[in-house]
Amino acid sequence: MLRAGIVGLPNVGKSTLFNALTAQSSALAANYPFATIEPNVGVVSVPDERLEPLARLVKTEKIVPATVEFLDIAGLVRGASKGEGLGNQFLANIRETDTVVQVVRCFEDENIVHVEGAVDPLRDIETIQIELALADLATVERRREKAQKNLKSGDKVARQELDVLDKIQPALEEGRSARTVTLPDDERAVARNFFLLTAKPTIYAANVEESALADLDHNSMVNSVREVAAREAAESVVICAQLEADLVALPPEERVDYLHSLNVKTSGVDQLIKSAYRLLGLMSFLTAGEKEVRAWTIPQGTRAQTAAGTIHSDIERGFIRAEIVSYEELMSAGSYATAREKGLLRLEGKDYIMQEGDIVNFRFNV
């Protein structure tokens, strides 16, 4: 399961966002640093508008969406890379995630203290960036020492590692992230073995007040966050964490109506979850029958036989064929029988590359 860590300075809205994401209030949201110590963990459904119509078509009431696991991690402060605050624990928690959601405060509120004394999104981003880069520098220096020792014994891998470290280290010394360093595919594969914090795919979540949602394009704080994300080839979303947390108490249809009254098309939380999915190059294929409709998560480019293993290893091992129809074609046909009559269902072999929204029935024998 995809794991996304919610990080940021204290009092920027991390736990409030976590509560909105998980549609409950398990995370302590408080107006003081380190309200969160142990990371709160919640499993969140990936929004998928196809599942309910598909369930109606196949006449089942059981829907199982794809899921993302979110961790609400303790707030970071200056000096975290040297163990200040809860620094060591903060960094260890980030290492366990696949992607990082950095919540950036983009609202003024005299009742919510800011650890730096004033709201400044760029400074806040830089603070976390520097702390993560310093932690990565320590990792790089250790890897360099090890690679240099191994190189003396003629280790070819050590030479490759040193070449990659030579490219990454200068960026870290400048306070930049490892993900901003351009590397060919073979060197990027080597770099993944370093498990650097700043190499993790990142989403910047600009947390605004409700009144700001109507005119985001002219919001200087939001624009500054978007510019940082664009420079780093990262994702950015705009959320109002407090609004999203409040919406949890409303029925789904009322949530949509309220967002529309604010001239907001979709929930910021939904955008965030989809961004995490997209950033990691993930996609969904679907299975649909009388027992259930379910979305399954796989990396883009996955072959049919490997996708079958997502359901069960026996299906992958005994794979024969995959019977596939696209979501759009099945919904247009109105039933499996009609889709079959029209020749829309097709049989694909083990090397077929799965496509987003494929509805699949795997044939296998073990």
Give a verbal description of the structure:
- By secondary structure, the chain is an alpha/beta fold.
- It contains 14 helices and twelve strands.
- The strands form three sheets. Strands 2-4-1-5-6-7 form a six-stranded mixed sheet, sandwiched between helices.
- Helix 7 links the parallel strand 6 (202-207) and strand 7.
- The longest helix has 31 residues, at 121-151.
- It is flat.
- The chain starts with a strand and ends with a strand.
- 36% of the residues are buried.
- The model is unreliable at 25-38 and 83-87 (pLDDT under 50).
Question: Which short descriptors sum up this protein?
Answer:
alpha/beta, six-stranded mixed sheet, 14 helices, flat, single chain, three-stranded mixed sheet, 12 strands, 366 residues
Question: Which helices and strands, and how do they pair?
Answer:
Blueprint: E1 2-7, H1 14-22, E2 40-45, H2 51-58, E3 63-64, E4 67-72, H3 87-95, E5 99-105, H4 121-151, H5 156-173, H6 185-192, E6 202-207, H7 220-231, E7 235-239, H8 241-247, H9 252-261, H10 268-279, E8 282-288, E9 293-299, H11 304-311, H12 313-317, E10 319-326, H13 327-333, H14 336-341, E11 346-348, E12 358-364
Parallel strand pairs: 1-4, 1-5, 3-9, 5-6, 6-7
Antiparallel strand pairs: 2-4, 8-9, 10-11, 10-12
Task: Give the structure's gist in a few sentences.
This protein is α/β, with parallel strands linked by helices and 366 residues long. The protein has helices at 14-22, 51-58, 87-95, 121-151, 156-173, 185-192, 220-231, 241-247, 252-261, 268-279, 304-311, 313-317, 327-333, 336-341; strands at 2-7, 40-45, 63-64, 67-72, 99-105, 202-207, 235-239, 282-288, 293-299, 319-326, 346-348, 358-364. α1 (14-22) packs parallel to α8 (241-247).
